[in-house]
Write a structure and sequence with these properties.
This protein is mostly beta strands and 74 residues long. The protein contains no helices and 4 strands. Strands 1-2-3-4 form a 4-stranded antiparallel β-sheet, with no helix packed on it.
Length: 74
């Protein structure tokens, strides 16, 4: 007999060019603008240093907010 379990489901985030994102934890923490997307990679630009990076697609949506000041001011 099978018993029910608590299960967490995750889906890759569907990035789109021009999107503003804020990563809240980890080595990539900070504000970024999405400047390129492929099936396997996402290219981001820092709005402060204008540094551009390309990483494997890695994010999962936790929460979306509207009307937020970006880049963040702490």
């Amino acid at each position: 007999m099978q018993h029910p379990h608590d299960v967490a489901f995750f889906s890759p985030y569907p990035f789109s060019v021009g999107q503003k994102i804020t990563l809240t934890h980890g080595p990539r923490k900070g504000d970024w603008e999405v400047i390129g997307v492929t099936d396997k990679k996402v290219r981001l630009r820092c709005p402060f240093s204008l540094r551009e990076v390309e990483w494997d697609r890695f994010c999962y949506l936790v929460e979306e907010k509207r009307g937020v000041l970006w880049p963040g001011e702490e």
